[in-house]
Design brief:
By secondary structure, the chain is mainly β. About 0% of the residues lie in helices and about 50% in strands. The chain is built from no helices and eleven strands. Strands 2, 4, 5, 6, 9, 10 and 11 form a seven-stranded mixed sheet that branches. It has a four-stranded antiparallel sheet with strand order 1-3-8-7, with no helix packed on it. The protein is globular, with a radius of gyration of 13 Å.
Amino acid sequence: QVQLVESGGGLVQTGGSLRLSCVASGGTFSSYAMGWFRQTPGKDREFVAAITRIGGATRYADSVKGRFTISRDNAKNTVFLQMNSLKPEDTALYYCAASSRTGFVSYNFVDYWGKGTLVTVSA
């Protein structure tokens, strides 16, 4: 069993930045593709960003491309999401996800979810 714990959420103004962290335990971190998803009340959980097992490739939702950066430090069992130029529509509960699948994480191939960290962007 892999446990994922997110941190770094908070309240920021439009145009501000936050850096989310997700620490994994209970498995071999480099064996998992990692990603971030977000969800608001009444909406489906949506893909935000993904990174391959050794960090050789990344993928982003069009809505965050150019503003968000995903990275990982396998020695520290941690994946990050640097969020810049934040907008009110970025407000959501952000979830860390892990997948044993090769390539990128997608919603239907997530093996483990974190409990989420809340990001609120004020207008």
